[in-house]
Amino acid sequence: MVKMKLVKLVPLVLAFVLLMSLRSSASFTPIDNYLIACGSSKSITFQGRTFVPDTQQSSLVLKSANSVVASSNSTVPSPIYQSARVFKAAASYKFKIQQEGRHWVRLYFYPLTSPGQNLESAQLTVVTNNFVLLTNFTFKNYNGSYLFKEYAINVTSDTLTLTLIPSNNSVAFVNAIEVVSIPDALLSDQAYAVNPSAPFSGLSDLALQTVYRLNMGGPLLTAQNDTLGRTWENDLKYLHVDSSAVNVSVNPASIKYPQAVTAEIAPNWVYATAEAMGNANVPNVNFNITWVLTVDPNFLYLVRVHFCDIVSKALNSLVFNVFVNSDNVLSSLDLSSITGDLGVPYYKDFVSNSSAGTLTVSVGPDSMADITNAILNGLEVMKISNELGSLDGSLSVGNILPSSPSKKNNIRIIVGCAVGAVSVMAIIGLFYCCLAFRKSKSTNQGTWLPLPLYGNSQTMTKMSTTSQKSNTASCISLASSNLGRFFMFQEILDATNKFDESLLLGVGGFGRVYQGTLEDGTKVAVKRGNPRSEQGLAEFRTEIEMLSKLRHRHLVSLIGYCDERSEMILVYEYMANGPLRSHLYGTDLPTLSWKLRLEICIGAAKGLHYLHTGAAQSIIHRDVKTTNILLDENFVAKVADFGLSKTGPALDQTHVSTAVKGSFGYLDPEYFRRQQLTEKSDVYSFGVVLMEVLCTRPALNPVLPREQVNIAEWAMTWQKKGMLDQIMDPNLVGKVNPSSLKKFGETAEKCLAEYGVDRPSMGDVLWNLEYALQLEETSSALMEPEDNSTNHIPGIQLTPLEPFDNSVSMIDGGHSCTDDDAEDAATSAVFSQLVNPRGR
């Protein structure tokens, strides 16, 4: 009890030390640093910084037709609220910006007594050049006595205009304004979207509003203790269960910042304190510490979590999970394996929505960890502007700002002068445009750029068809730069009946996928990129380049693309039976037999094996999951969606260092921790797919009990007990040969090994799945082998799968032999005697 009381005193002691100490780190010096005391006649010192009157700042222009000053000598929350400037009409502050980029915009409001005006009932709206910050705010509907707002705005010009607009014949007012440069490294353009799980980019184009900034287990921090002038409040009032956490702390001077994390990310006082697991008085000691935060449900949020292992005595002893809402965003997080030491700061950004106006962040121990503990040092939650550029409400700047009458008159004059000239040229221009369009259409329509033919594919270009007729088809080098058929946008509109919603096949991170029919009757799938997509142009280009040089029976074929009118459209072969996932759960489609499931897994494995070995340099898919394995009309599996694919390591390399991308639940934990990508990352993801195929449930299901949320962890516990049949699809019970299931489970277990070096290659996975299929087909004639290897089955000569050789075109009697054919031939050689065991 005494110990607990001492722990609770830590924040008070730290607060005292904090006020008495000097900051050891060098302060960031902002290029733009406006600290404005609105309506004040003198400079004001607040939190160690000096705010100057708005009439004495030379680089600031105040445009106001009618404003008055309100001031008070009575008690106010702080000196910054002693004065205010009050506007009876729309007014603006125009700041000269010396350095473009992110800037803090901080606003202070306190309803002082103003002659003839009741500022408490004032309704005010605040906008910048491109973003809406506040809409019709009034203190009448606000519980607090004062209001402080902090925004991060990306300024892309040499000025920033802040406009205050009174509403409903009221007034607008402001007490103080800050416009301060932000270090470029503080806010990245990318984060990881939580639900649905996908990379999220484009944050630089959006405005952010700080909603929460918490110092876990530590005292209040202000601009006096933060080089960027931020405020960090204590987290205690947001804890779901107070007793679930205890404060821990170390000397701030002991925090060791790595090169990638500076004191600007968060001060050492944040990393020197943390909340760790306490005594929650619950039966299960593996509980989570949860913070509950109220948010506006109509917006997305940037969630930044800060960590620093200040509790461990040795490396690799603290392993825990991190959740945003119910989604496990950092599974088996081992801080010391990432940072290489104890006491080293680390942070991660996520983009999430809210659940009915509540956003929760939790940390909890990993079930496989030696020590039951979890920590969190700091938390920031920032609202992201919506598609209208608003952080408050559903109106854009264009809807709010009043139009200037003189500007309207100028526009009328310009338009009037231009109409005459345009009218004269319109008919001539229209004639030539129509002529050029017809000529272009007759020239381009039906034009096919040659796709490199590599392997056996059902989708052929006109050039490859000609080659086949002359019996001279051969394997073309993957280095070909041809990108497939170019479609005109009008052709796409015709094929999809102008993107008829009744033809919609699905919606993904890149955009929407429609069924289409080309002029010759060929059915296709048309993926139309969303201009607001997180994946964007880079993934669009990657997918074209990857698929145009990869041809294999078990890879979805790219027919062509369209990039007219800034569109990002890809045209694929049509896969009649859709994604594998829809045949496993979530629909009323017929149950797949065990044999068919094995054949589908084998097909997908062949596609991935080809990616890893079929080129001079391997290709890593990076997003293997059941929605990216598509089935044609014959249930032949084909791997799809290559937008995140990346060229693998060179011969003299062991891995590729790259930012983590993929889907949560399928991500290789080693890749996630170390950001080192290898082919074995695809193997791990495929292991998750195997368990999903067997158990017919999602890779992550936060609704289930905690130990069942992650299918990989849950299924592995049953596999290690030799009881995988207990969690398999109930529709398969009694219909699966035990030997086949055993081999399947062993294969999945090896794929899901914690470290990549312990996982098999996709060639080995393919071999084992083929074996599981043969055991299923010949269960009546073969006894279950005692060993995991078929080397002990008499009479079977094993032929290992060799990597594909791209340099040789195998031609015999005028017919080409594709990689896919060679692969099937090798497999047939291995299992020819198993098909008819009596012939041995």
Automatic annotation (TrEMBL):
Q: Which domain of life is it from?
A: Eukaryota
Q: Kindly list the positions annotated as binding ATP.
A: 527
Instruction: Return the GO cellular component terms, semicolon-separated.
Output: membrane
One GO MF term = transmembrane receptor protein tyrosine kinase activity
Q: What membrane topology does the annotation report for this chain?
A: Single-pass type I membrane protein
Q: Does the keyword Lipoprotein apply?
A: no
| Stretches that traverse the bilayer | 413-437
Compartments it resides in: Membrane
Question: What are the Protein kinase domain coordinates in residue numbering?
Answer: 499-772
Q: Which SUPFAM superfamilies does the UniProt entry name for this protein?
A: Protein kinase-like (PK-like)
Cleaved signal peptide residues: 1-27
Q: Which InterPro entries does this chain map to?
A: ANXUR1/2-like, Kinase-like_dom_sf, Malectin-like_Carb-bd_dom, Prot_kinase_dom, Protein_kinase_ATP_BS, Ser-Thr/Tyr_kinase_cat_dom, Ser/Thr_kinase_AS
CDD domains the record matches: STKc_IRAK
What residue ranges carry the coiled-coil annotation?
none
Whether Plastid counts among this entry's keywords is: no
Record PROSITE patterns: PROTEIN_KINASE_ATP, PROTEIN_KINASE_DOM, PROTEIN_KINASE_ST
Q: What is its main location?
A: membrane
Keyword entries, A-Z: ATP-binding, Glycoprotein, Kinase, Membrane, Nucleotide-binding, Serine/threonine-protein kinase, Signal, Transferase, Transmembrane, Transmembrane helix
Entry protein name:
Protein kinase domain-containing protein
